Amino acid sequence: MSEAICYNLLLVGGSSSNLILAHRLLDLAKLSGLEISIAILEKARQFGGHIVSGAICNPQVICKLFPDFESQGFPTEGRVEVNHLSVLGSEQRWDLPEAVIPQGFRKQGQVILTLSHVIRWLAEQLQEKAKGIPNVTLDLFPGFAAHEILYDGERVIGVRASDSGQIYEDCIFADLTCFGDKGFISKDLIEKFQLRPNPQLWSVGVKEIWQIPGSLQGQVWHTLGYPILDGSFSGGFVYGLKENRLALGLIIGLDSKNPNLNPQQRLQEFKGHPWIQSLLEGGKLLKYGAAVIPEGGYYSLPTRFGVEGSLLLGDALGVLDVGSLAGVDKAMETGYVAAGLVHDGFLKGNLHIQADYQKEVMQSSVGQDLYRSRYFREAFLENSRLLEEYLPKVCSSVDAGHPWLGSLQLGLQDPVRRGRETLRAYTLLTGRVSTSAPAPQGYVAPHAAIQADFVSPTPVSVPQPESLRGYFSRPDAVFFAEPRYHEGNHHILEFSAETCRQCIATYDKLNRPTPCISDCTAEVHHTQEHQGLRSHAMSLENCIQCRTCEIICPQLNLRVNPSYEGSGPDFFGL
Predict the structure, then answer these.
(1) What does the angle CA 488 – CA 491 – CA 497 come to, to the nearest 5 degrees?
(2) pLDDT tens, 172-193?
(3) For a disulfide at 385, which of 61, 89, 304, 389, Cβ 3.0-4.6 Å?
(4) What is the tens place of the pLDDT at every residue in 366-380?
């Protein structure tokens, strides 16, 4: 019989948080002589293969580990040189003056990253670093995902990583397991111990990389408005990368009333804006992908940042600061903080470090920034008119050529109410709220926010697809995500076929598709008919592992599991 596979430390997910933890831990172990064995599981075929992110990053943690990172081969796309916050009408763009751009959106000097490149580099450098530290054993396992958390009573003791039926071949045991995944497996820990009293607010990000004739390196735009004016929390981005590449994308809040967001098609409409069309002239699409983003912030944090035998880091914890669009640096900081405590815990033989870890994270810049932005999402949940009524009117004034006048006229229509609402929104968005103020009341899980009969209050005029430069249908876009699956990868579970049939019947009566069909970022979900009965079906070979369908299923009847054997999309370079 095989011996059990055991490590001192198991890191679940080849994320920025876990890789930063490992780098810092190796540095400390080299100084102290701590003997430690470490394993890192990554579900993609290669590290970075399932990573989708903007990303603009404050390099403060990177500088701690790699003081001369820009001369050490650390992969960046350059620094932000020109930064814009823009409002898009259907035809025109208005760049807000620098003086009125919120502090969190002022990104000058920060580094632009292709995060998949960074993840690959961190993994490779980690292996090289370990070679020079004889007291450290490091094993990286690309193509292996965690499919089940193992417990001894209430203590986490490892994970199941394969499915042969032989416990000593399928399972990896560890003294301490750190989860840095985007909810694929860490959600089970959170649900088992009821760690999250407020729901996580998820968005989905859809992104493309283009090769363009000229260079826009260092130029950055974040956008509001077109093409999403239905009240959904959303925004776009355009980042100029090196080597004449352009990253563009759209982020859409899944806690929307709209059951048919169709993120991939909304991205095509975003590209249909005349300004974006001019940027893409002469270009070609290189990559497409999508991922969900935890945006709930401070009030969606777990009550405990781990249980005995485990810690939650990065996206598993949910530390993205939506008020400044900062997630990567926050995730890295959680890994850096955890590393010191993990090192000392093993050195002292005491791994009851969860409370200290939580305290240090909340006292760090992570906790301070999340606290400052704690009411950011609530500002829009509390007053739906901000996105349903006021933003569309500002967008119309942008198209009319007088955004300031349009904004002034909007305020003068009902000056008392509009003034009161503006002051309230400003107070919430900037965190100038009394410390005794109650927690937000508007947090609702995305599936519960959906209104099947929703009608957008603001119809949006979009160009016809055949007239757009660079338009791609959803089936065509899947090609650029390059999904590949081994036979037998049934990674999306449908718990009840009858529940799906009832959902289809509900939406058929409204003459619209179910949320899982419309909001799929690839071309996975569809209906089939047999003897007059319509049921749910899936083309799993198209799945790009974003988890959107699971999150927005009205009856929570779907679950997306990590695939086996490194199957899935190839997001490297995205």
Answers:
(1) 100
(2) 999 999 999 999 999 999 999 9
(3) 389
(4) 999 999 999 999 999
Tell me, rounded to whole angstroms, the distance of Cα 207 from its chain centroid. Answer: 11
Q: Quick check: 553 and 449 in contact, CB under 8 A?
A: no
Q: Distances from the Cα of 327 to the Cαs of 148, 172, 314, 334, 429, in angstroms? A: 26, 29, 8, 11, 18
How far is the C-alpha of 517 from the C-alpha of 534, rounded, in Å? 14
Counting residues of the chain whose pLDDT is more than 70, the rounded percentage is 98
Reported residue count of the chain is: 574
> Contact, 363 vs 47, CB < 8 A?
no
The letter for the amino acid at 390 is Y
Spatial neighbors of 459 by CB under 8 A, at least 6 apart, are none
According to DSSP, the residues that pair with 234 across neighbouring strands are 252
What does the alpha-carbon distance between residue 58 and residue 56 come to, in Å, rounded to a whole number?
Answer: 7
Burial 241-261 (b: 16+ CB within 10 A, else e): beeebbbbbbbbbbbbbbbbb
Tell which residue, 274, 236, 248, 230, has the closest CA to residue 399: 274
- Residue 526 has φ and ψ, to the nearest 5°, of -160, 175
Residue 286 identity (one-letter amino acid): L
CB atoms within 10 A of CB 301: 25
Alpha helices in 318-442 (DSSP H): 328-348, 354-363, 365-372, 376-382, 385, 391-400, 403-413, 415-429
Q: Residue-wise over 368-388: b if at least 16 C-beta within 10 A, else e? A: ebbebbbbbbbbbbbbeebbb
Cβ-in-10-Å burial (0-12, 13-18, 19+) of 332 comes to: buried
Distance CA 179, CA 340 (A): 16
Q: What whole-number distance in Å separates Cα of residue 251 and Cα of residue 76?
A: 22
Output the CA torsion sign for 97, 98, 103, 106.
positive
User: What letter represents residue 112's amino acid?
Assistant: I
Q: 22-54 burial, b if ≥16 CB within 10 A, otherwise e?
A: bbbbbbbbbeeebebbbbbbbbbbbbbbbbbbb
pTM across the whole model: 0.96
Q: In angstroms, rounded to a whole number, what is the distance separating the alpha carbons of residues 175 and 494?
A: 34
Q: Mutual orientation of helices 328-348 and 365-372 as an angle, nearest 10°?
A: 140
pLDDT for residue 411: 59
